[in-house]
Design goal:
- By secondary structure, the chain is of the alpha/beta class.
- The chain has a domain of 86 residues.
- It is built from ten helices and twelve strands.
- It has an eight-stranded mixed beta sheet, with helices on both faces. Strands 2-1-4-5 form a four-stranded antiparallel beta sheet.
- The longest helix is centred in the middle third of the chain and has 18 residues.
- The chain binds adenosine-5'-triphosphate and magnesium ion.
- Adenosine-5'-triphosphate binds next to strand 2 and helix 1.
Length: 336
């Protein structure tokens, strides 16, 4: 593949906030919930980026805002070199044609009254992917590609298992021939063995089609298996990002270290971490000053509480927003 001078996806300082209900709707300073708070990231064609973080950290909102399914408050998204956030409607149409989303609930993402074949055919027709006479053959091809039998195209979602429905959802996404897929917790609702099958399918598709995948997940073990890089979100910000093995083996943010320490599959013989992640994340309506993680960080210093938001530091491809120096022993690794 010829390397283009720009990444497939460039997100810069993206913010998404929601006006809170109640109060005077005309008040200019009505309180807002900052779901995504200045996120920057890059994705190359064919790359799989894991996006992890506790519930409410803003992962789905970020995924939707990247695909322009959620309005951003500020910042920019560039897809294939074109600015989408302030772009031409033709660029947004192009983004819609080249991106797709796979959701957690495979049943909810398909029309229960339509056969899965019809729902895949609809995408092919709407986006003029193949001539009308070739639609049926392409539907059969897509079903086969995701490990379903072409005859299963005649089934409605209710007649299929969760795993089969998720395969159908992936076939529908693939009908677009996307270059980027946002997979939001797409295996979380499935049994473990089926999860493995869907992960293998995504890995195969990435190989065959050079798909870039933004893989949103709670399960760090799956992210480690599937992804090239991982970004860790906390209260709307990316606090650490880098190559998967580097981040998992030498996390540089105490939040990541706590998440990594809690991965059960890492080594079942290891004792559980002495200091697991305690408490719940604070509300994104009242984000703590300084480093937003400080109320839960056992290594926090006064500057973490009252100082500025930590700047993102870089060690080659590894980026982290923490003032502590792990190599100087300022916080131990989960495995130290
Ligand atoms: N449409 C909305 N209106 C108001 N608040 C919203 C809206 N959508 C999301 N939020 C809030 O934004 C924050 C981030 O939500 P989001 O769904 O992006 O988190 P998440 O990381 O995907 O969580 P989970 O892991 O549970 O899926 C949460 O506090 C959520 O309540
Ligand atoms: Mg979510």
């Amino acid at each position: 593949m010829v390397n283009k001078p720009y990444p497939l996806l460039e997100v810069d300082e993206l913010c998404v906030s929601f006006a809170l209900s109640g109060g005077n709707p005309l008040r200019w300073n009505r309180p807002r919930l900052h779901a995504v708070n200045g996120v920057s990231l890059r994705m190359q064609p064919g790359e799989t980026l894991g996006l992890v973080g506790e519930s409410g950290s803003g992962k789905s909102t970020l995924g939707r805002a990247i695909l322009q399914l959620e309005a951003s408050t500020s910042g920019s998204v560039r897809f294939d070199g074109r600015n989408i956030t302030h772009g031409l409607s033709s660029d947004i149409t192009r983004l819609r044609r080249q991106t797709a989303m796979i959701f957690q609930d495979p049943f909810a993402s398909l029309n229960p009254r339509q056969t899965i074949g019809a729902s895949i055919a609809e995408v092919l027709r709407v986006h003029h992917k193949v001539p009308a006479t070739a639609v049926a053959a392409r539907v059969a091809e897509l079903l086969t590609q995701v490990g379903l039998r072409p005859a299963q195209g005649n089934c409605r979602p209710g007649a299929l298992s969760g795993g089969q429905c998720q395969r159908a959802g992936i076939a529908r996404a693939l009908a677009l021939e996307p270059r980027l897929i946002v997979a939001d917790e797409c295996v979380a609702a499935l049994d473990v063995s089926i999860q493995g099958q869907i992960i293998n399918l995504l890995m195969d598709l990435r190989e065959q089609m050079g798909l870039a995948i933004l893989f949103i997940a709670h399960d760090l073990a799956i992210v480690r298996r599937l992804c090239d890089r991982v970004a860790v979100m906390y209260l709307g910000r990316i606090v650490e990002e880098g190559p998967v093995e580097q981040v998992f083996q030498t996390p540089r943010h105490p939040y990541t270290a706590a998440l990594v320490a809690a991965i059960p599959e890492l080594d079942p013989d290891l004792p559980l971490p002495a200091q697991p992640l305690v408490g719940e994340p604070p509300s994104p309506i009242a984000i703590p000053s300084g480093c937003a993680f400080h109320p839960r960080c056992q290594f926090a210093r006064p500057a973490c509480r009252t100082g500025p938001i930590p700047v993102t530091r870089h060690l080659a491809e590894h980026a982290f927003a923490c003032v502590l120096d792990r190599t100087a022993g300022e916080f131990p690794l989960p495995f130290d």
